[in-house]
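Re: [help] complex structure
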Amino acid sequence: MLKKSNIIVVTLGIALFIFLPNCKKGAATATLASDAASRVYVAPGEKDEVYAFLSGGFSGQMSVYGIPSARLFKIIPVFSVFPENGYGFDEETKDMLKTTHGYVPWDDSHHVEASMTDGKQDGRWMFLNANNTPRLARIDLKSFETKEILEIPNTAGNHASPFATENTEYLMAATRFSVPVPQSNVSIDSFSKGGFKGTVTMVKVDKNSGRLSIELQVLVPGFNYDLSHCGKKKSHDWCFFSSYNSEQAHKMLEVGASKKDKDFILAFNWVRAKECKDQGKAYNFGGEYVNNFKDENKPAVSTKLSGVKMLNPKDCPGMMYYMPTPKSPHGTDVDSTGEYIVGGGKLASVIPVHSFSKMMEVKDKKEHHSTEIEGIPVLKYESTLAGEVQKPCLGPLHTEFDGQGYAYTSCFVSSEVVKWKLGTWEVVQHLPAYYSVGHLSIVGGSSTEPYGKYLIAMNKITKDRYLPVGMELPQSAQLYDISSGKAELLSDFPTVGEPHYSQMIPAKLIMDKTAKLFPLEENKHPYATKSENDAKIVKLGNTTHIYMTAIRSHFKPDIIEARTGETLYFHVTNLEQDYDIPHGFAIGGAPNMTNLLIMPGETRTFKWVAPKPGIYPFYCTDFCSALHQEMQQYIRVSP
Amino acid sequence: MGLLSFLTIFACGGEKTEETPASNAGSKGIGPVSSVTIGALDQSMADRGKKQFEAKCSACHKFEEKVVGPALQDVTLRRTPEWIMNMILNPMEMTQKDPIGQELLAEHLVQMTFQNVKEEEAREILEYFRKMDLK
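Output below.
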């Protein structure tokens, strides 16, 4: 008993010792810019300098903010239904949420990735992962809409995803939860006996259309694969995945998965993997999955697919190596030159930095191998190490780069961002974060040419920062100006959901390319009504198709008659050809449909089964003109 | 000038544009179109204009009666060809700055929409209006 209390006291003592000096140092060197308010103020009529795309965490969506003002511009629905505009409900978008598990109206979205050309952001697409029911999405930055969702088979917990290669040749997706591959009903104990596996999936991105397809899967040891970043320039051919639980514990992971001093960063040569596939070394493997694609102004098409090419590491020497990394690593980030691979260990007391050149030098020399795991050589820690940032903070997680030779690492436990110098590994600044910071993002910070200037920290806890709103408080992001020698805090702002990662892009790369309307003459929707003269009602047995038009400030046809039990499809085309004039469509009491927002020139379909007899009003929900309130009509339902 | 006033009054019937100052009646409006050459009626151009009109304008305009926007019968007698095209191509600025445009907005209270019509298509719509006014 006495012994136990002693241990507690000693542990506390160490914790205080470590924590206090850091805390003090952080406070002493942090600066809030004295003119912070004017630096984030964007005057009426002026525009923000940067778009910030934040993942929505448990909201399953992606949100778009302007930086530096931190104003929320838009929530883009991706993996979760969105009653505001009908995403996931209407006949056009409901198939976007189809999976092999059926219709899944929610997910947990963690990482935003920007498309790149030659390592530079190109402003074409954003990609987002679904962690819970493994999927990847492509969001078009012309329309800011989700265009495609691809399910990933043979995996569980799609966390290390969707990280892009330098030229967006591929997106990587890796298992967070190893499971039996293929799925089977086995004892959970068999995880510890190697019965569970992970997979690394290469998703090909068509360079013109952006269409997604699975190129290959690699069957890897059953660890938890956490995050990834791909190489650049000299490390172009490689992607790096952090892993934890190399202990393969299957219960009480907070103890069981923290036993070893080091876990691994998995270095994966995707060019070599493709080569092995082309040489026929991959084999046909099962796995059902779904691809959902929504072409412009057409209903989404959901396609069921089956089978992938699977590759075992032992059949493709030179493809994969493990680099030991302390301890329970979370982040793995590659600097703008492609040379340094920075690990972030949840329980590590240093920030380890691997050297790509060193890895290349030693990777195939036996004396630098400590062992091999399922055909994957394990390199010695010191052999690939470029340096360690000593005692940077508590709980270093994620690192971003400013392109000026500095790295910024978030520290979850001590709630701060540390700025340190690549090459000398010296910490030059501690910036407090409020509180419990996860990911960081610098404008262009994961590309080969960061635009620098702004950094945001995405924080998990905000108690005492904002007006209380009950038990659950918003997550928050904090904005720092990093353009001068010393980073300065400018502001903090609440966020939607719990943003995990973000990509920030200079506004000039996107703003002039955004779509303003769908040209009516190009509307290829099978139920489009391109002129009010073509508005009509077509009855086919117990189903009625209403070809309806909407324009300021009326619908046509405007009187609808139906019988109880009849299925009505309101195919509403917005005839406006004017920017920023969507029309809404909602029917009173509709039980399974939400509001629709129909963009200028777009056609969307509201399915409604006529309920008990009565008069049901429908109306436009998006204020459109002085006579908006008059944009309403009736459906009569008779027995 | 006398003839022009006469035409305006005649064309507009009881409409308020009667009160439009005579100086505006020959206005070309504000927009990309500064001069239009009008010849004999071009049937095929008018047919193309009809198609455009039906797709993009007819939801708000009829010829015989006011709906969302004003009735269009005899519009080519009330307004210059340039004014009509500028109203189609540049309705926002026209309703903000052009005296006739301002009055029309005050009367109908719905901002006319730019329907993504190209200049060539506006010319075709004008031809269709001319055809309708020859009836």
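The interface with chain B takes residues 517, 519-521, 530-533, 549, 551-554, 556, 575-578, 581, 625-627 of chain A (CB under 8 Å).
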